[in-house]
Amino acid sequence: MKYDDLFSQSLKRLHDEQRYRVFIEIERIAGECPFAVWKPPSGPRKVVMWCSNDYLGMSRHPKVIEALTETARRTGIGAGGTRNIAGTNSPLVELEYELADLHGKEAALLFTSGYVSNQAGISTIARLIPDCLILSDELNHNSMIEGVRQSGVERKIWRHNDVAALEHLLAAEPSRPKLILFESLYSMDGDTAPINRICELAERYDAMTYCDEVHAVGMYGPRGAGTAAQDGAMHRIDVIEGTLAKAFGCLGGYITGSRSLVDAVRSHAPGFIFTTALAPPLCAAATAAIRHLKTSDLERRRQQANAARLKQVLVSAGLPILPTNTHIVPLMVGDPRLCKAASDLLLDDHGIYIQPINYPTVAKGTERLRITPTPYHDDVLIDQLRDALVDVWERLNLDFVLASVAAE
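^ thats the sequence. predicted structure below, dont judge the formating
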């Protein structure tokens, strides 16, 4: 058997379906956010990044860089082992205390990524609850879906953000242990969950709640604790999961909750037990980012102001953005080939990088460019983006939306 032929055939199918992913090599410039150097075969070019999840530019904040470099000089780079064998380093322990405090929980547990924290956390928690029934929002992230799948327990899907549908499922199993899974902020559409209403149902029907806050931590709430904190619901959620790789500008994922729950996951989750601990310098950098954003609201206010202006400018230009009240700005295309072509034209002709988002990340027919402004995308860059998008939309004969209709 020619095994490589099988791999080639799978790649051909991706190309035929317009789903083949092209990776763009870039090198970000620490002192010049949001600029980066794109490195195509033709030679390096300076471009403007409009799709990074380093939402607040914290990856290049002086306090964060200093914490990382000072710790690296003191401890070295790697953790030196799993958490159980030599890897529970002091900066990591300090970070877990900081995360528990951020979310008002008794304890926190650190993982190597937000994907792993969902995958390992959900699967372990569900397995430890006898006869557990998982109720999962239909638009939950793939990491949550994988956690559900690996748990091996029964699961039911409820319509996105539809609390009536959720209540119907809860009421059908009044005495069974139940775990409700949802995100606070959905990264593709930029919408938010009705957190307090979900918590009310959980309390009424005696269900546990697990909330993914990865796109909201650092961004919302009085100390950057997320959307649940902003909504006054943080104390009502049993497990809050987050990431250090987006607004905090570092790497790693975590869960927070009661001391017994966190200890149970620590003691049972293979995704935690059998992998090397996060490096001490990264832990120190994340702690510095969290502490800064607990006390500084400047970055959040600037980012939200830029996001609001960007939406206003794009709507006025008749561009088809989904209406959101968050920092994520989805610009709809609806065709995978045209979405990639739009991204290519922006990069090649305008020096603007926005990665196309296609199936399976989003449903077929809802392909889009997802724009994520930072505190550093000023008025000049916003106007340049608008002009570039209008040019690309006209050249590709893409659908515009009348400004008056879009505003409604």
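Residues 115 and 312 are 33 Å apart (CA to CA).
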